[in-house]
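Researcher: I've been going back and forth with a colleague about how Phosphoribosylamine--glycine ligase might be arranged in three dimensions. Neither of us has a model we trust, so I'd like an independent prediction. The organism is Anthropogastromicrobium aceti, in case that matters for your notes. Sequence below.
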Amino acid sequence: MKVLIIGSGGREHAIAWKLSKSPKVTKLYCAPGNAGIGQIAECVPISAMEFDKLADFAQENGIDLTVVGMDDPLVGGIVDVFEARGLRVFGPRKNAAILEGSKAFSKDLMKKYGIPTAAYENFHSPEDAIEYLKTAKMPIVLKADGLALGKGVLICNTREEAMEGVKTLMLDKQFGAAGDTIVVEEFMTGREVSVLTFVDGNTYRVMTSAQDHKRAKDGDQGLNTGGMGTFSPSPFYTKEVDAYCREHIYQPTVDAMRSEGRTFQGIIFFGLMLTKEGPKVLEYNARFGDPETQVVLPRMKNDIVDLFEACIDQTLDKIDLQFEDNAAVCVVLASDGYPVHYEKGLPISGLEAFDGKDDYFVFHAGTKKQGDTFVTNGGRVLGVTATGKDLKEARSKAYQATEWISFDNKYMRHDIGKAIDEA
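Model: Here is an independent structure prediction for Phosphoribosylamine--glycine ligase. You can compare it with whatever you and your colleague have in mind.
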């Protein structure tokens, strides 16, 4: 099989790595890719949002399967464009990707079908939102309705912060049109857990649990980011939690989308909050998480091609999805100043230390090549992942491996997976 991956981050590098392990894959392409992906796939200089050019490439090069890693092209309808040309593509169609593309839609869906989530209101005008906030209980959460690179969520502890948040999202347009509508949501407390699932429209298969660390600084301080590190599995995602989520969240979501005429085929990422009242949905994503993918896929036993094809062909009920009885931790190496201002083009050394080591991985997020040298090309530069017999061993190994890599302004959190010690 010839396979095309669409995207350019650490998630896509992890997907490319997993696909490269499949005996069915003879040739891998990635558009646009990055320097790390370029070591195992042929990078194609077409942007993820140039749907017709990508479809042309797939047709001209006899691509057997296209895997869409990113949210923007999915929400924009890339799957519909490919399907209209008779091309096999993995990911939800536009009318199903709205599950991530509009937080207001997903909240309304959960309310209609009784799927547990935080109480909320949707607002289309800043005046109405501000009026509501005058009497709302604090703290409170404001969310931009549309896509905002994982950063469009504001947790407001005071009424003044909430009013300022409305201004940031709806008037200053910090996230552009994503803030035309906002969701104002009750603040939930508890442990966060990420659960990725393969979905074929009827059946779902749960991947192993993970936990992301969104804030830029240690102790969950600083600005929201795309994710500074992850661990898998979550010790807080127990058999009881899993059973509850299967009955009240996972299958009901798949069934609700089908009932709405928006049959979902691809990945549903369930962002969960384990509250005192039970698990509730924080958010849905319509694709693999980043950096959750970097800890989930190294633990997956199956050939991932089988999963992609089963979702497309609606034969997921025939798949027994299995994971290693181990653990993984990913620590993101970023450029200091991320997620606001940071330098690019800084030389990276030490990557060769990962060669030939089965339980250590380095997934490139923001890198490119200048001659023979890898240089930084983004805020999140690399994801250093290690597996171990348990979370403590994986964490120790991951942090050890971060020391193998050097570049100016290298920055990371030092408490990824610290929650493990409290479990």
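Researcher: What would you highlight for our discussion?
Model: I'd start with this: The two ends are 43 Å apart (CA to CA). After that, consider the following. Residues 2-94 form a domain with the Rossmann fold fold (CATH 3.40.50.20).
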